[in-house]
Amino acid sequence: MDVSTPRLDASSEAATSPDVTSLDTNEPVEAAVSMDASASTDVVVAADSATTEAGTRCPDNAPVEMITAGDITRDTRWDCSRTWRLTGLTFVRAGATLTITPGTRIVGLGMGAAVVITRGARLDAQGTRSQPIVFTSANPVGMRRQGDWAGLVLLGAAPINVMGMGGASGTNNIEGIEASDSRGNYGGADPEHNCGTVRYVRIEFAGQGLSMGNELNGLTTGGCGRGTTIDYVHVHQAADDAFEFFGGTHSATHLISTQQDDDGLDWDLGYSGRVQFMVIQSPAMSGESDPRGVEADNNNANHDALPRSSPTIYNLSVFGAEGAEAYTQPGVVLRRGTAGLMHNVLITDYKQGAVDVIDNSTVALARATPATLSIANAIFFNNGSDGRAHFTDLSSSAAEGSPALDEDMFFRDISRSNRFDVDPMIPGRHSVTAPVFAPAATSPCATGAATPPTGFDTSATFVGAVRPGATGESDWTTGWTAYPAN
To answer: What percent of the chain has pLDDT over 90?
Structure first.
């Protein structure tokens, strides 16, 4: 691991382009923009009027600017004086930066409404705790649903494990964009690549399928490198995965996934970044057949493809659903040759078990010395059909293979310092409208954790994503998040 990686802390007139305060007035822009004259009834804007840190006042009901499908080819700025409405796939092309200022709302509705930062372009979306940037559905409050729009996509030139000529790291087309469209291309040989900055951003009701089995997620990254910043991002009510990382080396911190229809965190194709401070809250019911808290893969076609998926994760909370109606999948599935080290993890309330390790290649990595695949310094609570059988084995299906790994024995090995049947004392973890993810100050989560290494927040010597006893501003999940009903 490269220890030089940055530490993970904490008007009514018609416009003619998507560039309201353009930094370049010469290059043409193909994505057309028009003012929606019926803005007062077309989109319900729920943002409160407030002053940003830069002193700009965000109006209560900003007029709506229509962004039609196409390409943004020059530096462009979206601010909170408008609500920006996506009507199709909007691609920010190589050489251009899309800047989104605090308090700005971007709404989408209909087939393919998405923002795609193509390889060589950048997104500079920096909200604040008091004025987060919000991507959401254009439908009125009370009529918004999972999959109302497609999502946010960042594509870069960092390595993935799809091979190119001569065995070098090749390229791929991102899931959700048609394979024939080169604007969906990602991957390369630059592990330091910068896809941009996404900070204090909410993404709601995204994850629309563009075709059968071809869906975008809340936030999708493909081949983004260490120069990328993803920090304080909340994905709520996604129709597919909340976060999916296809290869790359970027880090991600302070992530929240709530009530997603599929997985909270999904990685594959050689993702090898760092993740710290993440909450995953799964729903009681799901339309998906295989929703998990975490679904981890290396490469479906070649389980031993290099670079191998091998993220390092600290301070993760994975909450299953409450009650008998919970779907029947384990909390964390490790399969298809993934490696990865997870420390200070809390996994609760998965009736089909906390962790399942699938296929022979993944089992071999789990047994390797030194360990390349492990979960340690963890608390497991209320998992399994009787609340105690934490490692119900679902990997006996012919489709996934049936390796001989006793997960119960493996994760109970004393060297991993895991604890079982210990109540984390987080009674608000299941609330759909006002969840509380911080354990009580006296929670066992306050002890037994590993000290994160250099490059992480080394002060996070507790189990789970939120420091026990945290309230108000000391609880990083409050002040910028929201949990609107589906």
So the answer is: 69
Residues 6 or more apart whose Cβ sits within 8 Å of residue 87:
66, 67, 68, 69, 108, 109, 110, 113
CA 384 to each of CA 293, 346, 444, 470: distance values in angstroms, whole numbers, following the listed order: 15, 15, 21, 29
Give me the residues paired with residue 134 across strands.
Answer: 105, 202
- Place 329 in a pLDDT band, splitting at 50, 70 and 90: confident
Element (H or E) spanning 92, and its range? strand 89-92
Assign residue 237 a region (left: φ > 0; alpha: ψ between -120 and 50; beta: otherwise). Answer: left
Question: C-alpha angle with apex 390: 388 to 391, nearest 5 degrees?
Answer: 140
Give 413's contacts (C-beta < 8 A, 6+ positions apart): none
| Distance separating alpha carbons of residues 257 and 264, to the nearest angstrom | 6
pLDDT at 41 over 80: no
Q: Is the pLDDT of residue 27 over 50?
A: no
User: Which tokens sit at 307?
Assistant: 């670079």
- The tokens for 169 are 């790291």
> Which segments of 320-390 are extended strands (E)?
332-334, 340-348, 355-357, 373-376, 379-381
The pTM assigned to this predicted structure is 0.89
Q: How far is Cα 465 from Cα 232, in angstroms, rounded to an integer? A: 12
Instruction: Provide the pLDDT for residue 15.
Output: 34
Distance separating alpha carbons of residues 408 and 354, to the nearest angstrom: 10
Of 457, 450, 373, 442, give the one whose Cα is nearest residue 419: 450
Q: Tokens for 354?
A: 């906390």
Between 401 and 210, whose confidence is greater?
A: 210
Residue in this structure with the two tokens 């004392």, named with its chain if needed = 425
Q: Which residues contact 467 (CB under 8 A, 6 or more apart)?
A: 438, 460, 474, 475
Q: In what order do the strands lie in the sheet with 265-268?
A: 70-72, 89-92, 114-117, 151-155, 219-222, 243-246, 265-268, 294-296, 332-334, 355-357
Instruction: Determine the residue type at 401.
Output: G
Dihedral angle of Cα 137, 139, 141, 142, to the nearest 10 degrees: -110
Could you report the per-residue pLDDT of 69-127, keeping only the tens digit for each? 899 999 999 999 999 999 999 999 999 999 999 999 999 998 789 999 999 999 999 99
- How high is the pLDDT of residue 211? 62
